[in-house]
Amino acid sequence: MNGRADLGRGVRRLPAAAAGALMALLAWAPAFALTVDLPAEAVVAGVQVRLGDIAQSRGEAVAEEVAAVVLGQAPRPGQVRVFTRQQITTRLRQAGFDPEKVVLTGSEGVAVKRPGRLLCREEAERLYREEIARLLGVEAGRVALTLVNWVDPVVPEGDLRLCVLGEVGQIARAAATGTLIGPVDLVVDGEPHATLRPRALVAVKVPAVVAREGLARGSVIQPGQVGVVEIELTRLPDGALRTEEQAVGRQTVRSIPAGAPLRRSDVMVPVVVRRGDRVTVTVEAGGLVLAVPGMALEAGGAGEVIRVQNLQSNRTVSGVVRGPGEVLIALDGGPAAGL
Q1: Rounded to an integer, what distance in angstroms lies between the CA atom of residue 160 and that of residue 190?
Q2: 228 touches 205 (CB < 8 A)
Q3: Distance between first and last Cα of the chain
């Protein structure tokens, strides 16, 4: 005989009321499919607390679904939040589980703690400096940054990164003023945690081309006449040249004093054909080459496209300046067609 049959005979020997209560308990007991043990304390890392984060379940079938039930928001890093047994029961009911079929055992409440640490000024400045350098495309060593009125916040444990919000152009213009004011996202392990609004004094040094000697207007810049130095962004003019290659071989359009940074508007491709110059217009069409006399209708440097007049047909076409007195017209897909 099994134990339940023995228990049944024992029940029949009990008074009627007691026997009825015990049989009701026996009928209800198999309905328990899951037991959840609640500890007195638990530690979580995420921003939400799920039942499976703080307790262990024992039972069948629904254990995984029960573990996924969200109990609420996790406490802020370094703080504690208590979830009572009654609160957990309510969350289970809201999630569609019958509280009478999920047994909660153990503690009457769970004290949930979220680990945290202070984000000190030195670390925050380093993270901020690295982010500004990344956005501006310079080395972190070229960025000097000081946080003003910084109060060390408590942040979660994990890999931290600061992500400056806004367009790169706006950030560059703000950096050029010497002051940056948030917003900045604090990202922990790849997930946004909080938005900070720090105020920072910043000095960014970038490479720029400067004149090593005075350059007269209309002169063609030679190697050695310019060099690259580091200049603070607050002193850098708009359109400043960054490499010597952008300046050497170009012609100045104004006088430039020694030590001054060069801008794109300060130089041009040297003019080798002037307006009104007689030029030889070379026409290439497939494998055929034809040279005709022409007149430049505008000035241009080597590689630039200008308008020229065919002096034989009086037609106006566009061609590429090849050198002094020479213009090329390509009829097979080049800048001009229909000579």
Answers
A1: 8
A2: no
A3: 113
Other Cβ atoms closer than 10 A to 132: 24
Q: Does residue 27 register a pLDDT over 50?
A: no
| Together in a domain, 264 and 293 | no
Q: Which domain holds residue 43?
A: 32-114
Q: Which amino acid is present at 257?
A: P
Q: Is residue 202 part of a domain?
A: yes
- What confidence score (pLDDT) does residue 274 get? 92
Residue 183: asked if its preceding bond is cis (omega within 30°), the reply is yes
On whether both 88 and 183 belong to a single domain, the answer is no
Number of structural domains in the chain: 3
**Least confident among 20-34, 47-61, 112-126, 230-244:** 20-34
Are the C-beta atoms of 111 and 41 separated by less than 8 Å? yes
* Domain CATH number, residue 138: 3.90.1210.10
| 10 within domain boundaries | no
Residues 6+ apart with CB under 8 A from 327: 273, 279, 280, 281, 282, 294, 296, 306, 308, 319, 320, 321
Q: How far apart are CA 217 and CA 232, in angstroms?
A: 27
CA distance 24 to 97: 22
Report whether pLDDT(15) > 60: no
Which of 11-15, 43-47, 130-134, 282-286 tops mean pLDDT?
130-134
221 and 233 inside one domain? yes
CA angle, 110 as apex, 106 and 111 as ends, to 5°? 145
The answer to whether residue 23 is domain-embedded is no
Same domain membership, residue 283 and residue 158: no
Do 255 and 126 share a structural domain? yes
> What stretch of H or E contains 91?
helix 85-94
- CATH at residue 51: 3.10.129.70
Q: Which of 57-61, 109-113, 162-166, 335-339 has the highest mean pLDDT?
A: 109-113
Burial class of residue 233 (count of CB atoms within 10 Å of its CB; 0-12, 13-18, 19+) = buried
- The better pLDDT of the pair 172, 179 is held by 179
Looking at every residue in the chain, the average pLDDT score rounds to: 84
